[in-house]
Design brief:
This is DUF1616 domain-containing protein. Keywords: Membrane, Transmembrane, Transmembrane helix. It comes from Halorientalis brevis. By secondary structure, the protein is mostly helical. It has one domain. It is about 75% helix and about 0% strand. The protein has five helices and no strands. α2 runs parallel beside α4. It is flat. The relative contact order is 0.11.
């Protein structure tokens, strides 16, 4: 029997491939155009990897094999690295490079903010503020 996690991952991958084909055929978007950069950044690290991980983190619990906090951390980090790799592989003068760099900054910045919030909540200062 196929596990719930596998079904979620395969759904994200199938959705990504379907949207990539639709964008290529209907919108006539090539991956070397500025709009194609947006398509590649959205359809490769975000839809097949980040969204399923965030969905599993939101609907899962601590009894799963992987904790929701770990899912959020790993998904933001890996998606940020893939987006960074896409932006770094582009020519410096290519207009879509700023877009890919912006997505990279948002993903890695979100990871940084998430770590700050988790660290703040686990500190003794936050626990004392609740009256515990």
């Amino acid at each position: 029997m196929v596990s719930r996690e596998t079904r979620v991952y395969l759904t994200g991958l199938a959705l990504s491939v379907l949207l990539l084909l639709v964008a290529g055929l209907v919108l006539d978007v090539g991956l070397r155009t500025p709009l194609g950069v947006l398509v590649s950044v959205l359809f490769f690290p975000i839809i097949p990897f980040l969204l399923p991980q965030l969905y599993l983190a939101a609907t899962g619990d601590e009894t799963d094999n992987v904790s929701p906090r770990t899912r959020v951390r790993v998904s933001l980090f890996v998606s940020g690295l893939v987006a960074f790799g896409l932006s770094a592989s582009m020519a410096p003068a290519q207009p879509g490079r700023w877009l890919a760099g912006g997505v990279t900054a948002i993903l890695l910045g979100s990871l940084f903010v998430h770590e700050m919030v988790v660290g703040y909540r686990s500190s003794s200062l936050f626990e004392n503020a609740n009256g515990e």
